[in-house]
Amino acid sequence: MTSKRLCYEPGHKPKCLVIVDDSAEWDRAVYYAARWAIRAGGGVVMLRIIEPEQQSQEWLGVADIMRAEAQEAAEAALDRAAGRANGIAAITPERVIREGEALEQLLAVIDEDPDIAMLVLAANPGAEGPGPLVTLLANALGTFPVPVTIISGALSDQSVDSLS
User: Where does the record place the UspA domain (predicted)?
Assistant: First the structure.
């Protein structure tokens, strides 16, 4: 992993990383990140992770179709999220699509971009728990390479405005 973040060095700017997934609360993380970018004079990187399906050799043609469909769905999700960020902060976020295991891909994106200063996630406010990504990261937070901000999915735009 990159030992030093360069986000505040000359020629660099801080970026906030947001995961755009299929959860109901992704919008809260995007909203917070866009507001943060305004205040910090930074940028937003939006990441969509496609988790690979297990397939056998005889189904490779089907797997290729499924991969193409997942890529299209990822592009559409990032289009929605980028439109939301642009509407909030008049910014054009960077877009990254990765395929693989979620935590591995998340760490790789952070490692490859030394300007990422923070990861923003949104937690599900429901009784079923905070969501799979927040739960997954809970075990890795002690060794995580950047600060992690977790926004409640129950916060309104006005509440996020007052916090960011």
Answer: 15-150
What tokens does 7 get? 């986000």
Task: Kindly report the pTM of this predicted structure.
Answer: 0.87
Handedness of CA 72, 77, 80, 86 (dihedral sign): negative
- CA-to-CA distance for 160 and 156, rounded, in angstroms? 6
Alpha-carbon distance of 164 to 160, in angstroms, equals 6
How far apart, in whole angstroms, are the C-alpha atoms of residue 8 and residue 148? 18
Position 2 scores a pLDDT of 55
- 99-130 pLDDT, tens digit per residue, is 999 999 999 999 999 999 999 999 888 778 77
Residues ≥6 apart with Cβ < 8 Å to 78: 20, 46, 48, 95, 97
